[in-house]
């Protein structure tokens, strides 16, 4: 039997086991799997960032948590058509820990080089994309109890609590008795290191995930097992564990590290500004009617507020000298 494990340690262990042994896309689908236009638009965004960086002859086109490799494959195809010089300059770097998913990515993006984490990436200017990566990173949970705080640990499939200092969170001071405050410590560490790197070596990053615009109290830890909601603490490694991403906290961390930050903006607004519907229409015209309808519905699913358009947010973290990047206009 295991001793009590802090929630973030439990979540890290459970997700590492889950991604190493499962095809996550049997349990959930993601924007790049819904429409090829998603990855194409992100590729074009990366190309515009590259131009803003002064069009370096070589740069890293990186992705964190690339899943099946669809986003990167679609991005590279769009860049090859629209900005061949950028396509030629791109050295594709994938940050992925799961050997199983690395193999799937190699089938879609054979030229890629794989890394275990951000710190392992080679030096140089970089454009990094990440879709539904940060939500898989481990969180800590704190519970208000009377005038003090407890932290969640996991033992034998249940929570136990231990006294803890007050969490560093804007909603902590007014939290009601019993309220849960989540700290995405691993996501914050990732964004801090990313912002420091971009400030030193140049570049930009686009982070897309689901979460509220304003940091609030609340329990967002969830598990999906075989496509259905499950108990997050039962059977570690059998379910995908995620939590909402606190974009306000990530924006603060990136600014404190010296980076320029754009957003968060709702995904629907971002994709529409990048031309989601125009590009989808053009593509649909070349397809048989059934496929054309499916493409248009996929675009609506990504953008409509009551589907993925509002819950999902887009945040850009950039070198401060970069010109403004598309998708974040007021
Ligand atoms: N971006 C893809 C996949 C999202 S699933 C898409 O949109 O379809 C989450 C991805 O992050 C998987 O590829 C998973 O293996 C990877 N991942 C999860 N935790 C990770 C970690 N700590 N380090 C690197 N990759 C991780």
Q: Determine the fraction of residues in helical runs and give it as a percent range.
A: 25-40%
Side by side, the strands of the main sheet go 4-3-2-5-10-15-14
The CATH architecture is 3-Layer(aba) Sandwich
Indicate the low-confidence ranges by residue numbers: none
Number of self-contained structural domains: 1
DSSP strand content = 15-25%
Largest sheet: 7 strands, mixed
What small ligands are held by the chains? S-adenosyl-L-homocysteine
CATH class identity:
Alpha Beta
Report the average pLDDT across residues.
Answer: 96
Q: From the alpha-carbon coordinates, what is the Rg to the nearest angstrom? A: 20 Å
CATH fold title: Rossmann fold
Alpha carbon gap, first and last residue: 54 Å
Describe this structure in words.
- The chain is of the alpha/beta class and 330 residues long.
- The chain has a single domain (5-270, 307-318), classed as Rossmann fold.
- The chain is 39% helix and 24% strand.
- The chain is built from twelve helices and 15 strands.
- It has a seven-stranded mixed beta sheet with strand order 4-3-2-5-10-15-14, with helices on both faces. Strands 1, 6, 7, 8 and 9 form a five-stranded antiparallel beta sheet that branches.
- A hairpin with a 2-residue loop joins strand 7 and strand 8.
- It is globular and about 60 Å long.
- The mean pLDDT is 96.
- The site of S-adenosyl-L-homocysteine (SAH) has 20 residues, from helix 1 and helix 2.
- Residues 15, 19, 24, 30, 32-33, 65-67, 71, 95-98, 101, 131-133, 136-137 line the site of S-adenosyl-L-homocysteine (SAH).
């Amino acid at each position: 039997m295991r001793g009590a494990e802090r929630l973030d340690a439990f979540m890290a262990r459970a997700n590492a086991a889950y991604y190493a042994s499962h095809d996550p896309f049997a349990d959930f689908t993601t924007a790049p799997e819904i429409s090829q236009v998603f990855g194409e638009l992100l590729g074009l965004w990366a190309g515009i960032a590259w131009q803003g960086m002064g069009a370096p002859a070589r740069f890293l086109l990186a992705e964190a948590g690339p899943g099946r490799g669809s986003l990167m494959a679609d991005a590279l195809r769009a860049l090859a058509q629209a900005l061949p010089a950028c396509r030629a300059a791109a050295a594709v770097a994938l940050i992925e820990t799961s050997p199983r998913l690395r193999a799937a990515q190699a089938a879609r993006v054979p030229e890629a080089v794989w890394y275990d984490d951000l710190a392992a990436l080679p030096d140089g200017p970089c454009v990094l994309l990440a879709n539904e990566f940060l939500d898989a990173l481990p969180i800590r949970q704190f519970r208000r109890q009377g005038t003090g705080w407890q932290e969640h640990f996991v033992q034998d499939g249940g929570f136990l609590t231990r006294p803890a200092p007050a969490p560093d969170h804007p909603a902590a001071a007014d939290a009601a008795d019993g309220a849960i405050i989540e700290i995405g410590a691993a996501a914050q560490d990732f964004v801090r290191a990313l912002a420091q790197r971009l400030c030193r070596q140049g570049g930009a990053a686009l982070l897309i995930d689901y979460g509220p615009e304003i940091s609030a109290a609340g329990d967002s830890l969830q598990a999906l097992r075989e496509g259905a909601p499950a108990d997050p603490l039962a059977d570690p490694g059998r379910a995908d564990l995620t939590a909402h991403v606190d974009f306000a906290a990530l924006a603060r961390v990136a600014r404190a590290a010296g980076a320029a930050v754009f957003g968060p903006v709702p995904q629907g607004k971002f994709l529409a500004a990048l031309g989601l519907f125009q590009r989808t229409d053009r593509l649909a015209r070349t397809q048989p009617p059934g496929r054309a309808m499916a493409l248009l519905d996929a675009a609506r699913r990504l953008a409509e507020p009551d589907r993925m358009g509002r819950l999902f947010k887009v945040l850009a973290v950039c070198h401060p000298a970069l010109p403004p990047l598309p998708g974040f206009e007021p």
